Structure formats: structure tokens, C-alpha cells
Amino acid sequence: MASGDERAAIPADIDGTGLRIAIVGARWNADVVGRLNDGVRRGLEALGVSEITDATVPGCFEIPFACRSIARSGRVDAIVTIGAVIRGETTHYELVSEEAARGVQQVQLETGIPIAFGLVTVENQRQALARSAGPGGHNVGEEAALVAVEMALLSQTWSPR
After folding, report:
1. Residues near 109 by Cβ (< 8 Å), separated by ≥ 6?
2. Alpha-carbon distance 47 to 151, whole Å?
3. d(CA 131, CA 123)
4. Which superfamily does 18-156 belong to?
5. Predicted TM-score (pTM) above 0.85
6. Is 138 tagged catalytic?
7. Residue of 7, 27, 72, 92 with catalytic role
8. In 10 A of CB 53, how many CB atoms?
């Protein structure tokens, strides 16, 4: 996701009415993830999505497994992932963020269920809070909601009949 003026324009014809979306959120860095969740819900509701399911996992590393389980259930049209990986004093940051991203990408390609990547990977708490702002601010979760709806609609348009 880009920031500031670099963000993509929202297509006018995006309507998520009738879509089933799951939100998979990490419990680690709960304050930031809660703000991201608020953003996802704001975004989905603004696009007409009313069937929203929440699932939580311990941390970002566990998100791909949860996504795989949910995608294989056949009960969702798309998934939004939310979490915060904040750099610390060790290489743990790189391992978690890279494997979460790789795992999410692998799951969506294997299952055909779109997964919007709403994880913030940042240097510090200040950056995490800046990317999970309230209404009218930059919220990666809100942006991921749009991605999930747009990609679910694309998937429906091009699915075999």
C-alpha cells in the first residue's frame, strides 16, 4: 500500500453488496491491530459489505495458516489480513514479515481466494500508529478492505461458468 498522494484512485463502480469477507487479525500489537480492524470495517461497510467474519491468531506468522483454512472452507469471497510487525533488536522482524507475506501470497494463488495484505511492517510504534489512523487518516486496513472487494469482484467476473 502506498501512502499520501501515491494511493490509487478508488474505482467508482465498486460495490461489495452480497460479498462475504473474513478479517484475519493478529493479537500481537493489539492496539494497532484494533485500529486496523476499525479501518477494515469502515472500508467494507462503505462498499456495501455486510457479511463480515472475524478470526484472530496469535501473531502475523500464523496468518497464512488461518487464511488457508478459511479460504478452503468455501464460505468467503475474500480475506483481509491485519497485523503489525514492528522492528526490534533482532532479525525476528524480517523473518516474520517476509514469511507472512510469502505465505499469504501462496495461499491466495493456491486457493483462488483473494487475500488483501493489511499488515504494517514498520520501524517503530509511531509509524504503526500513523498507518492505522482513524476516519479520514491513513489506515492500511481501510485500504485493504477496498483491495479485498475489488479483487473478489474481479474473481467473480472471471470465474469459469
Report:
1. none
2. 13
3. 12
4. Lumazine/riboflavin synthase (3.40.50.960)
5. yes
6. no
7. 92
8. 14
State the Cα–Cα distance between residues 36 and 24, nearest whole angstrom: 11
Nearest Cα to 4, choosing from 119, 133, 149, 147?
133
DSSP class of residue 132? B
| Helix (H) or strand (E) run with residue 119 in it | strand 115-122
Residue 1 has pLDDT above 50, yes or no: no
The three cell numbers locating residue 95? 523473518
Domain ranges of the chain: 18-156
Determine contact, residues 85/98, Cβ cutoff 8 Å. Answer: no
CB neighbour class for 42 (10 Å; exposed up to 12, middle 13-18, buried from 19): middle
First and final C-alpha spacing in the chain = 32
Burial readout 83-118 (b: 16 or more C-beta within 10 A, e: otherwise): bbbbeeeeeebeebbeebbebbeebbeebebbbbbb
- CA distance readout (Å), 75 to 36, 62, 65, 106, 107: 23, 20, 16, 19, 15
- DSSP labels, 100-116: HHHHHHHHHHHH---EE
Q: pLDDT tens-digit profile of 52-105?
A: 999 999 999 999 999 999 999 999 999 999 999 999 887 788 899 999 999 999
